[in-house]
Amino acid sequence: MAAVIPDQLHDHHHGPTGLMRWITTTNHKDIGTMYMIFSFVMFLAGGVMALTIRAELFQPGLQVVEPELFNQLTTLHGLVMVFGAIMPAFVGFANWMIPMMIGASDMAFARMNNWSFWLLPPAAILLIASFFVPGGATAAGWTLYPPLSIQMGMGMDMAIFAIHIMGISSIMGAINIVVTVLNMRAPGMTMMKMPLFCWTWLITAYLLIAVMPVLAGAVTMLLTDRHFGTSFFNAAGGGDPVLYQHIFWFFGHPEVYIMILPAFGIVSQIIPAFARKPLFGYASMVYATASIAILSFVVWAHHMFTTGMPLAGQLFFMYATLLIAVPTGVKVFNWVATMWRGSMTFETPMLWATGFIFVFTMGGFTGLICAIAPIDIQIHDTYYVVAHFHYVLVAGSLFSLYAGAYYWLPKWTGRMPDERIGKLHFWASLIFFNITFFPMHFLGLAGMPRRVPDYALQFADFNMLASIGAFGFGLSQLIFLWVVIKAARGGGEKAPARSWEGAEGLEWTVPSPAPHHTFEEAPVVK
Amino acid sequence: MSLAGRLAGSVVLFLAIPSAFAQSRYNFQEPVTSVAEQIYSLHTLMLIICLVIFVGVFGVMFWSIFKHRRSRGAVAANFHENTTVEVLWTIIPVFILVGMAWPATKTIIDMKDTSDPDMTIKVTGYQWKWGYDYLHGEGEGIAFVSNLATPRAQIQGQEEKGEHYLVEVDNPMVVPVGKKVRLLVTANDVIHSWWVPAFGVKQDAIPGFIRDTWFRAEQEGIYRGVCAELCGRDHAFMPIEVHVVSADEYSAWVEGLRLASVAQAEADDREWNQSDLIARGEQVYAATCVACHQAEGGGVPPAFPALDGSALVAGEHGPLVDIVLNGKTGTAMAAFAAQLSDVEVAAVLTYLRNSWGNNVGDMIAPEEVAAARGV
Ligand code: HEM
Ligand SMILES: [Cu+2]
Ligand SMILES: [Cu+2]
């Protein structure tokens, strides 16, 4: 299959200028940039919601928001962060980096690429605008369980529509990535020579194609139950509310891997670069990623141990879930072995990657604890679970995104990130993150449920600590904005083509910043 | 010291916190059933295994971070594969996992064994309260609804918060110590989840379906829990309180309730006039309706419509009796037929028609409600 012929064969840009340039662009770098800006804006929006939640939980009693609005905020915080911030950020990375890593001139379907990005802003507007319609945004939790989600007002329909749109965008993005990786590799770039980031994204893309339609189906069934008289999830009409949970989590569990596999990929690029030593166990990393992806389809009901499954169901899902720990462990061991006897330096990207391994693994351990069905029955729907998934999503996905952003910023902007400020950003984030989320383990163990605007008095001190941490964490993220703006405006040290001494890969063979078109002539990989 | 020192410091901190304080502030609540106890020790086992692996893996990582850095003159080796090591660190974890799964399996089998109960109680989740029906065993026939007892003023911060803020109810579940209690859990509107941590019981209450679970409390006392599944606005305000009492105290409680209900039935079995109905209706409203429709009848539109000034409230008796008895599907308005007696329905509706801005001036008689039920 031939690559898309770029509109212009010269390096500088001849197409429309100003806003139209961005609306009509088919360039993978422009689109990658737009994805990232979009996701950071959504990250800030979701962050404001989170801080409102933490402000309410600062003390027992109702002070800041009423319970209705509180539930809307927790719901939209979840939806915005998952579908608006984390997922598009990884797609942005894929757009920017995959063609450059495999020596392709662009993504395979450049026009579809434009469309898959431009679907996102309308979806985001639907979500945010739903706060202002009668009845407000959906308050059924980001999992949208019926029958509660059936009770919601039109904000729920807006959320369903937004999910449909974002799902279509994700599927188009995923198809693009699969085809690009499979068909557009430079001569000599065999599959097993591909940077691990491309591998993890390839596998993630398959997961997306497999499960986004399932989510679309689930929310469509909600929609018809709400408005068209069906009873998929209504017992009175012969349906079953738990059926929704099965469908949702059949999407939902692979979804969590959609948000972490590319993170593994980024970290697997960075650790070898700063250890100045090849990645340990490349092949086993690929197999581990594939095993995780496959297993992720048979563990969904570990989110449902308290629904009262039959014994055999509980045992099966417990065993399958425990099994996922094996390939995940292999990854951690491989990273540590990569560091072992390296010659390490700790520039900002490496700090984030190291922090990722350390804190993400703690989330892995609590995941293991949650996998033990009897224990999970105690901690399900408590703050313990909130702690668990923030350890893997914030300290996992988000930290890896920061690691990657600092690592590739020189390639994107032509300027090295400000090390001093970057390190400040890292340490502030790491410390405040733990102040925020570590006490939540204790809260959950001691019996505090999640999704509550108010709580019993014995939980007061840890909640106050968590709220303080949350504000610290939120404010620390603005430091990142500063680093990026400084580099984008041409401040700081000029970056050479190979911006980090130990960095390997085709992306480091092109100048920094990367010209608008790269690898119009495919490089040959020996 | 720079990076390594600081990171190592935080490791020490994380390791110290869980192990240094063993009180329930940092761990599960004190278990009072064998299941909760098994869960407690399973968790301790998991914690130990995880800590050992944690120390092992991160010991190596931080050693490496400390020793193998370029500033200390480390020169990079070039190895990047070792099949033996990779097979080992795939196989060994499998054995560790089997060691975890084995005791967990035994506990699950135990948790699922609801056979041979001494008594059976049906638990129904409502937005936002719990209903208890004693179906079998001593106290058979007892049925009541359990509401949050914490005054709204405490929640709004107009009053000092009490010791059991948000975990106290008006009518607690009462069970005898040492008896196997089987729970049939269901819900009326949306999914709730009945959770008492000290018993190790958390069971989703699913509308239209009945799930069962069990506990045998080994120690007298008061145990508190909360609804664990998001169920709408007042999800945080529908706690669970279980009093585990001696066999004698339990019998006394059952007898007391029996006498009270006989007295109430006798008192209700009379000719009602409007003002008595309004007085009785005010109590019913405060216990049953106020959570949604609010003290002044203003509701929280659009989810919970105002009753003050409502055309339906002031209109014909038939539809009004019907919506209370049978609810309105697709909304939070539940069917109250099973929960309220004829007198109570008649009373609350008479109260509604003659309160706030509503002054229809008539009454709805208990007989009308009885007739409507018959249909
Ligand atoms: C026995 C006590 C109650 C009485 C007498 C009562 C009475 C009524 C009446 C008369 C209406 C119709 C109002 C109108 O359309 O003008 C209504 C609607 C409604 N009630 Fe209640 N109610 C009670 C308890 C509750 C409770 C506890 C809830 C909350 C769970 C609730 C939620 C609703 C909702 C959501 C509607 C609106 C249904 C719709 O969309 O049309 N009610 N109620
Ligand atoms: Cu899962
Ligand atoms: Cu609830």
Descriptive notes:
The complex is a heterodimer of chains A (526) and B (375). Chain A is mostly helical and 526 residues long. Chain A has a single domain, classed as Cytochrome C Oxidase, Chain A. Chain A is built from 17 helices and no strands. The relative contact order of chain A is 0.11. Chain A has helices at residues 19-24, 28-56, 67-102, 110-118, 120-129, 148-151, 154-183, 196-227, 241-258, 261-275, 282-295, 311-339, 348-371, 373-379, 383-413, 419-446, 460-488. The longest helix of chain A has 36 residues, at 67-102. Chain A is 67% helix and 0% strand. Chain B is of the alpha+beta class. Chain B has 3 domains: 3-111, Orthogonal Bundle (Helix Hairpins), CATH 1.10.287; 119-264, Immunoglobulin-like; 271-373, Cytochrome c-like domain (Cytochrome Bc1 Complex, Chain D, domain 2), CATH 1.10.760. In chain B, 43% of the residues lie in helices and 16% in strands. A 5-stranded mixed β-sheet of chain B has the order 3-2-1-5-8, with no helix packed on it. A 5-stranded mixed β-sheet of chain B has the order 4-10-9-6-7. The N and C termini of chain B lie far apart (82 Å). Residues 1-23 of chain B have low confidence and may be disordered. At the A-B interface, helix 3, helix 6, helix 11, helix 12 and helix 13 of A face helix 1, helix 2, helix 3, strand 7 and strand 8 of B. The complex binds protoporphyrin IX containing FE and copper (II) ion (2 copies). Protoporphyrin IX containing FE binds next to helix 6, helix 7, helix 8 and helix 9 of chain B. Chain A: Pathway: Energy metabolism; oxidative phosphorylation. Chain A: InterPro entries: Cyt_c_oxase-like_su1_dom (IPR023616), Cyt_c_oxase-like_su1_sf (IPR036927), Cyt_C_Oxase_1 (IPR000883), Cyt_c_Oxase_su1_BS (IPR023615), Cyt_c_oxase_su1_dom (IPR033944), Cyt_c_oxidase_su1_bac (IPR014241).
